[in-house]
Structure prediction request, 319 residues.
Amino acid sequence: MTTSLLLNVIIVIALLLQVAAIVYALRLVKRTKYNVIWVLSIIGFVFIALERFFELRSINGEPKYFYISICLGLAVSVCISVAVMFAHRLVSYLERVARQRAMLNRRILTAVIRAEERARSNFSKEMHDGLGPLLSSAKMSLSALRTESMTDKEREIITNTSYIIDEAIRSVREISNNLSPQVLIDFGLEHAIKNFIGRVISLHGVAVDMNISLPEARPDSDVEVILYRIVCELTNNSLKHSDCTKIVLELCYDDSAITLRYADNGCGFDLQAVAEKGMGLSNISSRINSVGGHIDIHSREGEGMNTTITIPVDGRING
Prediction:
């Protein structure tokens, strides 16, 4: 095969590719926002196809088409340059849309979490202020039934019933506190976590190495509630699923963010399998994303679990 024939074949192939690119660009004109980019691309591809055509004529003995090919090359350069400028605008537009979408998602998550906390708080108040006093009144009425003339069996029945009411009152208080811990509202995150961990130690006997260093000025309520819920969720998961004997909990503030480090010495887990199977980690991630935070979880089967959560608090400290 001669050099001239080889060049002809190459140019024909390039010409066919340009025609295919033109057809594809024509389809994109109707499907995208910045049509001018694809219009310029189509014009550029047409010029390139013509350039290849005149190059082919020039190679086959018509040198006058060489200058036309050069002019077409210049036109192609102009079209591509302008198209790149509009492509930059397209990229900026897409970045802006992505930021707006992320901000909207964060606002939706925040609204959902706030609505959930309001529902928890209302239900907690109804239980504490409604059911609690009713149970206390029932206990007082039951105590009034005690008389000297009662038989031992009747006294035993009243004693057992009084014990059951006491347990019901304790359960109502515990459920109400879990739904909306008053200590978190009144005294802040540090006291709420210490109160929760104290109950965990007394009920489950697990060792907890806890170090909390927070500023006197409290972060806003969203951050406090989210961190408290995350600590509860992680601790409950460790107690239910990991068979751990020790938990390490560290919460610190470094002028711009609050960092939570949590670890246990339990059985560990396959992170991907758990993420696909359960909602616990998904709920934690959603809460963290709602305040622009970041979570990093490491775990392997037989090696426990280690989690680091960072939440920026610039402008969220109530000094």
